[in-house]
Amino acid sequence: MILTAAKIQAARDSGDLMIDPFEPGRLSPNAYDWRLGEQIRLCDGILDAAAVTRCEEHLIPVTGMVLWPENLYLGLTLERTCSVRYAQLLNGNRHIGALGIWVHVSAPLGHVGHAIQWTLEIRVVRPVRVYPRMTFGKLVFLYVHGDHDSYQQIGAKYAATAGIGLSRLHEELAGRRPGDQP
Amino acid sequence: MILTGPEITAAAADGRIRITPFTPAQVNPNSYNVRLGPLLLVYTSDIIDACQPNPTRPVPIGEAGVVLQPGELYLGHTIEEVGSDVYVPLLFGRSSVGRLGLFVEITAPIGDIGFHGQWTLMLTPTRPLRVYPEMKIGQVMFFVSAGARDLYHGKYQGSAGPQPSRYWHDVHRDLRREAS
Question: ipTM of this predicted complex?
Fold first, then answer.
């Protein structure tokens, strides 16, 4: 079950979820309309699951920044969100989709207890210019079934991420030697 | 409603969910992490034909890993057999994998109630990416369903290893439907 706008507002008022900054006008019928943050990381090299990702961080100028199809970009939501009661799903909205922009490559899921600015895994179909703080997508909240297990309590890797989170998969592959780096 | 981690663990213990092998350390707050099996398949023809069986070539993933190239489609599989006769499973990549630009599924995250087997992964990287066997690559979430259940008994039931598209099995049925 998905929370309606009224329920999101009520849950925020009672402390069951947090969205910061929060603007009531960004509530849509069953979602919160989140914005693109100002930082972005460009990944244009060869990647290795067993190695630290090398990519440079930029600020998106107010005049915008063109994203190119062959690159991977890691971005950030402007908002920090958290709920220990509801699971969260983050997606782009139809405007962003119609511009040929993916906002995540993997899962839209924010686990119960996640308290973060979301790292976006951005890829585009055609070159497209994006702007900082533009409305980018929808965040929905889901009821969960069963006892809760907070992301913080189990010490998960990204529980307290600040800024754009790079993959930390290499920590799980510590026994492997990264392939030859270019 | 989406199952919490403790509920996934409880359901795996009492049979509402079947995950083989099951490792408690792979349970997340709202999902279960699945690992990449050691075999990939790539289509060998220049153009894939939706209405024909398409030949494939195996790409084993050795201990040193394999570099996936953008523009190629790799069919992989989960090591784990995952399914449920009660809940609806959804498979996605993990954040750690998404941040490396790797798509783990294409357009079909939703599984069927009653499907049991290894899941086929549809791997397409954004940048060249080296992957390794047994790395935790995806996550399966489970949703509570409403209504009477009609369990899956389709052509991918009991899948072992990567499964190329078998749309061609259905194409004549589809065309007949169209004609009628």
Answer: 0.79
